[in-house]
Amino acid sequence: QVKLVESGGGLVQPGGSLRLSCVGSGFTFADYVMSWYRQVPGKERELVAIITNGGGATRYGDSVKGRFTISRDDPKNTLYLQMNNLKFEDTAVYYCYRATNNWGQGTQVTVSS
Prior knowledge:
With 113 residues, this protein is an all-beta fold. It has no helices and 11 strands. It has strands spanning 3-7, 10-12, 18-25, 34-39, 46-51, 58-60, 68-73, 78-83, 92-98, 102-103, 107-111. The strands form 2 sheets. Strands 2, 4, 5, 6, 9, 10 and 11 form a 7-stranded mixed β-sheet that branches. The protein has a 4-stranded antiparallel β-sheet with strand order 1-3-8-7, with no helix packed on it. A hairpin with a 6-residue loop joins strand 5 and strand 6.
């Protein structure tokens, strides 16, 4: 059974940083492309970042390029999202995703002064 558990969300001021983590279990983590999505109430989930299996390639949503970094530690079955220079509009629930249709429970990130 695939399980994804996010952590690391919280309240941060604009310009601050957070690092999200997602621990995967029930599958061979290293074999899969992994992603972060985010969702604001009333809007569709938005792709934030994606990383290939092996970590050789990454891609980011336009709104986070240059500020967020996705990475993975396969021996620890863990996906990360380093978020720097956070903005009000980054406020959302952040989800870890593995195809097909495997989502974590989400972690809330709130950027507020």
